[in-house]
Design a protein that fits this description.
It is a single chain. The chain has helices spanning 7-23, 25-47, 66-80, 101-107, 139-148, 151-160, 199-207, 220-226, 237-243, 270-275, 278-313, 323-343, 346-368, 370-377; strands at residues 51-57, 85-90, 112-115, 164-171, 178-180, 194-196, 211-213, 231-232, 251-254, 263-269, 317-320. The chain is an alpha/beta fold and 385 residues long. It has a single domain (49-370), classed as 3-Layer(aba) Sandwich (D-Maltodextrin-Binding Protein, domain 2), CATH 3.40.190.170. Residues 1-46 have low confidence and may be disordered.
């Protein structure tokens, strides 16, 4: 904006004000000294105020990827605030069970949590859209929708009812379809299969006849080993190798259409967040966003060597999901999502409309840009290795 004020008049007013101030200097000195002393005394008290928060998580303590992401976010908040806001992390079961993070933060039992929104579809099925849905958004598209397409505002509105403030804190990137004891070739092979998967992927697999089992990450190895489940969808090589499922299943399938990109969130008790001064609120936001980009980069880089280790050292067979199954899953996804939107309330429909509009628009460009580039990069030609 152009400033059209009279600078000469402004200078004159400044000089007059300065002379008046100097004339009154003696009279104001004692009052000013008191004011200055009061201000000086007040500042250290504000600056030295310390807050201690607890963060509960859905992951085993120190679990690679999602677990260490929680610890990094907590450390960032603590360091960026110079200790004014200290966050201590607790693994699943240390304070509350893995699937009770949402309730613990909502009730104010703890100040902060770290899990995935699709764990809490019992509160509202629409929460799944803020983690992942079958055939949904990939990582860069998710960030686009949330940060620039109105998704974050809708998420905040959906969680406000429960006294929570959500933040995108982690992205695992595109996941794998899952681990299977026996190879799968047709939709018939899924019928009666005891399959662990969370979120809307569970509803889709149920449509195809699978018997869906829900359980936390920390219970998966035991379940696969004992036969409680026949197959499971976890994350991707970097995480999966740490669980050790390669010891009890050798068929590893891609692409991971159930979770094309998965957001893990940090949630803060809304009342506690609103009590923070604005700079600490921004520190929490910034630390979570840094955690999102850092985790995405970590998964991208570490999945490749983990996959090599699985196939070359553990005898894992990397397999592609048959097209018949992929098409059937796409049709089942359409049915599940359509019913959810039609049966939902006004907020549910607004979230769906925003998500699907973003998916349609970005999918058109992604198929031209990223997918086109990746197809070209996969061609047979000479290149340094």
């Amino acid at each position: 904006m152009t400033d059209n004020s009279d600078t000469t008049t402004g200078a004159s007013q400044h000089d007059t004000g300065r002379r008046n101030f100097l004339k009154k200097g003696g009279m104001l000195a004692s009052a000013g000294g008191v004011a200055a002393a009061s201000s000086t005394l007040g500042m250290p008290a504000i600056a030295s105020e310390r807050r201690e928060w607890r963060m509960v998580t859905a992951w085993p303590k120190g679990f690679p990827g999602v677990g260490t992401n929680a610890e990094r976010v907590a450390q960032l908040i603590t360091e960026m605030s110079d200790g004014r806001l200290t966050v201590t992390v607790h693994g699943a079961g240390e304070v509350v069970p893995a699937m009770e993070v949402f309730d613990a933060v909502s009730s104010g039992t703890v100040e902060m949590g770290h899990d995935a929104s699709f764990h809490h579809m019992g509160k509202n099925p629409i929460f799944a859209l803020f983690t992942t849905i079958p055939f949904g958004l990939v990582g860069n598209e998710y960030a686009g929708w949330l940060l620039h397409g109105g998704g974050m505002e809708l998420w905040d509105e959906a969680y406000a009812e429960f006294g929570l403030k959500p933040f995108m804190a982690c992205n695992t990137g595109t996941q794998m379809f899952g681990w299977f004891r026996e190879p799968i070739e047709t939709v018939q092979d899924l019928r009666g299969l005891k399959f662990r998967t969370p979120g809307l992927g569970a509803a889709v697999m149920s449509q195809l006849g699978a018997t869906v089992v829900q359980m936390p990450v920390g219970e998966l190895f035991q379940a696969m080993q004992s036969g409680t489940v026949d197959a499971c969808e976890l994350v991707s090589p970097f995480n999966d190798i740490a669980i050790g499922i390669q010891q009890v299943a050798k068929n590893y399938y891609a692409p991971g259409v159930i979770e094309g990109s998965t957001i893990v969130n940090a949630v803060v008790n809304r009342e506690k967040f609103n009590e923070l001064p604005r700079d600490l609120q921004q520190i929490v936001r910034t630390a979570c966003l840094q955690g999102y980009t850092d985790s995405w980069a970590e998964y991208t880089y570490k999945n490749a060597p983990a996959m090599r280790k699985l196939t070359q050292e553990h005898g894992v067979q990397l397999r592609r999901v048959p097209e018949e199954i992929l098409r059937a899953m796409g049709d089942a996804s359409n049915k599940v999502l359509t019913e959810m939107r039609d049966d939902g309330d006004e907020l549910t429909r607004r979230i769906f409309d925003s998500y699907l509009s973003a998916r349609g628009g970005m999918k058109a460009y992604t198929s031209i840009a990223e997918q086109g580039f990746l197809n070209a990069r996969s061609l047979d030609y000479d290149y340094p290795s």
